[in-house]
Amino acid sequence: MGNIFSFELIRCDSIGSRCWDCVAGQAIYTYRLEERLSELKTALDELKEKRDDVMRKVNIAEQKSLKPLNEVQGWLSRTATMINEADQRIIDGNQEIKKLCMRGCCSMDYWSTLKFSKTVVQTLHEVKLLKRKGAFEVVATEVPVAPVVERPSDSTIGMESTLNKVWSILEENHVRIVGIYGVGGVGKTRLLTEINNKIGVSSNRYDLVIWESQNWYL
């Protein structure tokens, strides 16, 4: 019994048509390179204007002791990076345009120009997207006031037992007032300073610590 072979004829005009569609689709990138670069420059200018507006709002907020939002700081950082990249694309684009011939339909270094043209299109998309994300209604918020301001403190060597005793009293719920007294120079202020710093690190019972003259309040 002989071997059976089968094959399918594919019309050359069909293959040619698909190849032409592919080439034409790729060629549109190089053909519109100058147009895309112009669009990129316009979009980049608008992004820079948006950045300047946001930075102006941030500066005004900081003068009022407000803290910029993390998303605003992140946007400004990403915008700075994108501006540098887009500026470089425009500079490189001037060299790529010089390679074009036949009114932009072809290039003396086709594949290099094609790759660059696609990069320009992607950069243009990212610049426009970043500009839209910069529409912040609020750029900063109030900084929470720290309940305790740490104060410089000398060593409390030799006062550990007194410090522990006062601290244990402060931890009792029913205690409202603690009096610390003694002759000058025995370390009362040093002891209170250490307690102040200890509250800031290890206690959530107090909303605010106030130092006033020789008096100290929780």
TrEMBL record:
User: Has keyword Coiled coil?
Assistant: yes
UniProt xrefs under SUPFAM superfamilies: P-loop containing nucleoside triphosphate hydrolases
User: Which GO molecular function, any one, fits this protein according to its record?
Assistant: ADP binding
Q: Which Pfam families is this protein grouped with? A: NB-ARC
Q: Does the keyword Transport apply?
A: no
Per the record, the domain of life is Eukaryota
Q: Which residues form a coiled coil?
A: 30-64
Could you identify this protein by its name?
A: NB-ARC domain-containing protein
State the taxonomy lineage: Eukaryota, Viridiplantae, Streptophyta, Embryophyta, Tracheophyta
Residue span(s) of domain NB-ARC? 160-211
